[in-house]
Amino acid sequence: MVVFECIKSVIENENKKYVVDEDSLRIANESHLLPFLYLSMDENTSIDIKEQIQSKFNAYILYDSMLDIEYNRFIKLMDDNGIKYSILKGFHLRKYYPKSFLRFMCDIDVLVDKKDFYKAGKILIDLGYSKGEFTNHDQGYIKNPFNIELHYRLISQKEYGGSYFKNPFSLMMKIENSNEYIFKRKEDEYLYYYCHLLKHYEEYGIGFRNFIDLYLFLKNNKLDYEYIHKIYKMTSFYDDCIYLEEYIKDLFTEKEEYKEFTNKLLHDKTYGSMHQMMERELEHDSTIKWLFKKVFPNIAYMKNRYSILRHKIGYILLPFLYIHHWFYYGVVKLKYSIKKYKYAKKIKKEEWKGTVSTSSFLVFLNNCGA
């Protein structure tokens, strides 16, 4: 596949060139891997595709520069306000890439102590961000095209190693002249990235980019695998952990047994597709049962959607929050709800033919004239 060959050429410094077609352009665009095409594009690629790639590549460069500026503004305020924090995932991983713009980030993930959660959020509000989605481990903040997620835990579920990461700052050390914390051991940093990948792999689907991250991490760090394998046993997926580790180590060897899996990852966008997520939801349910769960969601879902339920006194408002939930999806978002129900029926009938990603960054690409 052309997208894979372009990525390999850049990562392995092969300097090979490939003719890019429409399908490869679409896959790379949806998976935020397009800069790899630009750096490996053969001159015989059609003029139209060349122009599209050039335009989108310029937007990646612009976004990468803007993100650095935004990041520096934010962490300066975190330091000035005495908030201890740790920058997670993309911002640390991109140093392993030949160029920083190759490691696109949908958002900046920041770990803070729960006691500093409001204070850090206030900084983002003052920077012009508005609150986005709240989950059981983070709060999103949005200022298009940027997204910053404040985390107060790393891995919440025990089955993905959550008990090991229960007190994340205890695994970290402070950087001199800063309030930023980094992992003391490279093994623990790797395990966090790995368990995060494992969660998406088992639940929602995962794209190829996260495997590139870990391939480069392993390539650039000498790790104690005996220690790592002990921690794998704290998850519920030891065999999968071993399989995926071997796959990551052999990512660009082009072994025949991995080709089908690689092809699937490249088609699954950055974090899997909506189809995968809904397919998982519908795995053991009829469409009607799935709909009932959407209309009457459980308390865990309601806690994620309405942060006031994190406090037990908030349960007094639960009936009113359910009314709000029904009004929102039954009136305000009625067209969306109907569309999603029809989509669920198609999945059950195996009629799905694919969707187009609409991430905020793709909107940014279009606004840049890409």
Major sheet: 5 strands, mixed
Helices, by number, come to 17
Poorly predicted parts: 352-358
User: How do the strands of the widest beta sheet line up side by side?
Assistant: 1-2-5-4-3
> Per CATH, which architecture of the largest domain?
2-Layer Sandwich
Please identify the top-level CATH class of the largest domain. Answer: Alpha Beta
Helix content: 40-55%
Structural class by SSE content: alpha+beta
Topology:
Blueprint: H1 2-11, H2 22-30, H3 34-40, H4 47-80, E1 85-88, H5 90-93, E2 108-112, H6 117-126, E3 130-134, E4 138-143, E5 146-151, E6 172-174, E7 181-183, H7 186-203, H8 209-220, H9 225-232, H10 238-249, H11 259-267, H12 274-281, H13 287-295, H14 299-305, H15 318-332, H16 334-348, H17 360-367
Parallel strand pairs: 2-5
Antiparallel strand pairs: 1-2, 3-4, 4-5, 6-7
Helix pairs in contact: 1-3, 2-3, 3-4, 7-8, 15-16
Protein name: Putative nucleotidyltransferase-like protein
Transmembrane segments: 313-332
Keywords: Membrane, Transferase, Transmembrane, Transmembrane helix
